[in-house]
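In response to reviewer comment 3 from the previous cycle, which asked for concrete evidence that the modeling workflow produces usable outputs, we include below a single protein chain processed end to end. The sequence was submitted unchanged, and the resulting C-alpha cells are shown without manual editing.
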Amino acid sequence: MKNLIYVLGLGLCTILSMQTHANIKKHIEEQGFEFVKQIPAPEGLTGWAGHNDQHPGTVFISKDEKYYIVGDLYNSKGENLSIDAMNTHVKEAVLDDVWKTLEKSTWIQDGKKDAPRVVYVFSDPNCPYCFQFWQQARPWVNEGKVQLRHIQVGVIREESRGQVASLLLSKHPEALFAEINEHKGKKKLDNLQKIPTEIAEKIDFNQSLMGKYGFFATPSIIWKNRAGEFKSAQGMAKNLKEIFEE
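The workflow returned the following C-alpha cells.
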C-alpha cells in the first residue's frame, strides 16, 4: 500500500517541553499521541513508540518526568534508531486505526453485510472509471463474496459536491446509487445548492481522508488481502482478482 504507507510514515517534528506535573505521559496523550509500545532509550530516558493522528512517531520522557522529546532518536553514527521501532510496533496499530477511520466515513453499502471481504472505494458521481469499476465488480458483489463501501466525495466537477449531498439525502441512497451506476452516470443526480451543515461536514470528512492518505484520483481503493495486509490502488484497477480474491 505505497501511497498510504508513505503518507503515514511522515515523522513528527522534534519538540522539547518542560512539565511540572507528575503524570507527563497523560499530558502527552492529551496532545493526541497514542502510546503503543515501550522501546529502548538512552540512560535517563524512557522511550515509547506510538502515533499522533495516525502519523507514527517516538517519544522519550526523562526519568524525573520534567522533560520530554517527541521525534526521532539518532546515534553517534547518524543512524535513525526510531525507524525500526515504528515499523515493528506502530505500523500495524496505525493501519488498524486507519481501517476504523474508514468505517466512520460516510459510505454507500454495495453488497451483503456478511460478505467475507470489505473494500472501500472513494468515488465521485462524475467519475466514469467509478462507474466502470462498479460494473466490473458485479460478479463478486452479486455472489456475496465482496461488499463495496463507496465513500462519497465531490472532487471532479463543481456540481459533484451538490450531487453527493443529493445522494446522501435521498430516501434510499443505496438504490439510487445503484441506478446511477447501472446507467453509467447518464442519469444525473440533482445538484443541491443549499447543503445542510451535517451533510457538508460528512463530505468534508470524506475528502479530508483522501488527502490524508495520499489519494488524488477516483476511484481510490483500499482493501485487506487474505493475509490481512493493507493494499491500495488509484484509478481504474487493472487486476480485479487481486482486489477481490487474493
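The mean pLDDT is 90. We consider this sufficient to address the reviewer's concern, and the full set will be provided in the supplementary archive.
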